Structure to design on (256 residues):
């Protein structure tokens, strides 16, 4: 038996585009549904959501049940033990928020990858399919299945974006919400200053041959982003879809 493949890594490293959505609430079934819907990966939000390790374990299993790749948005991105635990539970990708320097990006690689590429501690369970994958085979291939990316959402990161883009991650994601806050225009995700920063991120990713990520507000926004060269597109979250569809139904019946 072989280690589990990661189609997100495979797609991005061959120049393709991946689509994602997210889950904040500790409801594993939502991950399964998003997988069946067709998203390439589901972002399990431990930064803004109510996800603890035991819940994360169930959400990872549900992602696999739905045929999608589980990726975690870390609550403690600079804690190597937290990164290791998420990977040991079977997560196939790590997103760190507020990546401000190349050292932040390199620290993620160190925590997520086994030696000699990093210094992750050995303790896998699900990664070896609970012992079915020989240890030697596991070590030969597991580092290449891990998707590493960072949110660029601070002005200081924009100032050194080339160094960050060259630090060995697979993708840099534009954090439009926090950039808008930092530039004094809260909620204005398409403000010119935010879009200028986004362009710098995209250009740096192209120079370093890694993917750039964009948080799309709708299908037209996603199409625009892909036309610009973004190759990782995120769209909302399961909770927002429930609200949108509920309001659409109730609004049609006069419930405002």
């Amino acid at each position: 038996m072989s280690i589990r493949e990661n189609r997100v890594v495979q797609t991005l490293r061959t120049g393709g585009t991946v689509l994602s959505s997210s889950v904040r609430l500790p409801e594993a079934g939502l991950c399964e549904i998003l997988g069946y819907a067709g998203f390439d990966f589901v972002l399990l939000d431990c930064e803004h959501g109510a996800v603890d390790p035991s819940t994360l374990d169930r959400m990872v299993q549900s992602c696999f049940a739905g045929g999608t790749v589980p990726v975690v948005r870390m609550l403690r991105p600079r804690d190597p033990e937290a990164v290791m635990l998420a990977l040991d539970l079977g997560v196939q990708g790590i997103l760190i928020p507020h990546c401000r320097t190349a050292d932040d990006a390199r620290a993620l690689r160190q925590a997520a990858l086994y030696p000699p590429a990093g210094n992750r501690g050995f303790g896998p369970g699900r990664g070896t399919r609970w012992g079915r994958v020989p240890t030697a085979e596991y070590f030969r291939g597991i580092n290449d299945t891990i998707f590493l990316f960072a949110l660029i959402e601070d002005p200081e990161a924009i100032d050194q974006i080339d160094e960050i883009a060259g630090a060995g991650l697979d993708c840099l994601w534009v954090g439009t919400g926090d950039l808008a806050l930092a530039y004094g225009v809260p909620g204005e995700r398409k403000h010119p200053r935010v879009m200028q920063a986004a362009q710098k991120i995209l250009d740096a990713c192209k120079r370093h041959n890694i993917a750039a990520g964009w948080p799309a507000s709708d299908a037209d926004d996603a199409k625009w982003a892909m036309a610009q060269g973004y190759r990782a597109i995120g769209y909302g979250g399961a909770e927002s879809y429930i609200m949108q569809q509920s309001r659409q139904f109730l609004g049609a019946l006069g419930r405002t």
